[in-house]
Amino acid sequence: MAHEKLLNIVNISKTYRQRHIQKKYRSFEAVKKVSLTINNGNNFGLIGESGSGKTTLARLMTKILSPSGGDVFLRGKNISQLPIKDIAKIVQIVFQDASSSLNPRMKIRQILLEPIRVHGCRKTDNSDDVINEMINEVGLDKTLLIKYPFDLSGGQRQRVCIARALVSHPNLIIFDEAFSSSDFINNHQIIGLLKKIQSKRDISYFFIDHDLRFIKMLCDTIGVMYNGELVYNGPTEGLFLNQEHHYAKKIIKYYNFFREE
Fold first, then answer.
1. I need a labelling partner for 42 at 20 to 30 A (CA). Which of 9, 32, 170, 221 fits?
2. pLDDT score at 111
3. End-to-end alpha-carbon separation of the chain, Å?
4. What CATH number does the domain containing 200 carry?
């Protein structure tokens, strides 16, 4: 199982139509024939500047968006043929801003119950047992279950988002710039938490970020996206040895600057 393909993307593309002057439209290709593979138990890190197509790719991976071309395979099955409920039991997303991704009108317990109610995840288990298990696994006290998101700190909200993603026992969690809105110390704590979770679960991570420091700590494989294209896709250490693309050189220079600091 360890080296079997969990998710396989083949020549995926996404083109948007943008409204231009005089009510005319023009095409914009956000993702251009990207191919990559995530194996069971491995972590993939995707680096790229804003507007490079990273988030669009993540949404294509989960069927939030439909591709203009190419295919996405999940456990060997084309996700175009899979219901959203089935995909949600295998792949979950933790978004960039924990505050905006948690419903402020719902208590934490209700938020964690939502995947069970909407997607039918873990419905054979006792819901309260599942919720208590998840909140404990992310290092939070169950007394927080009766509170609202605005009662929690930013780090606690981030952990709630991770707990919600874990409810369905997915095989893959996508973190869409989940480290960008937190401080360096909290991010290190979250990295330790994710490593601990992975040591106990059959789970893979797909990280999208600007900061190579955190990606390097967690990922076996790195992809570099630039202008919708995957300009590097290979072992993490290989990126530091093979900087053929100018953007790869730029992010290595940025990484070295902060390491020296």
1. 32
2. 94
3. 41
4. 3.40.50.300
pLDDT band at 112 (very low <50, low <70, confident <90, very high): very high
Q: How do residues 23-74 score in pLDDT, each as one tens digit?
A: 677 888 999 999 999 999 899 999 988 889 999 999 999 999 999 999 999 9
Same domain, 113 and 242: no
Instruction: Phi first, then psi: give them for residue 227, nearest 5 degrees.
Output: 55, 45
State the average pLDDT over residues 153-162.
Answer: 92
Q: Cα dihedral angle (86, 84, 233, 192), rounded to 10 degrees?
A: -70
Domain of residue 104 covers 96-169
Q: Verify that 193 and 156 share a domain, yes or no.
A: no
Domain check: are 161 and 223 in the same one? no
| Tens of pLDDT, residues 240-255 | 876 677 777 777 876 6
Question: Number of folded domains in the chain?
Answer: 2
Final residue in a domain of this structure, among 142, 169, 196: 169
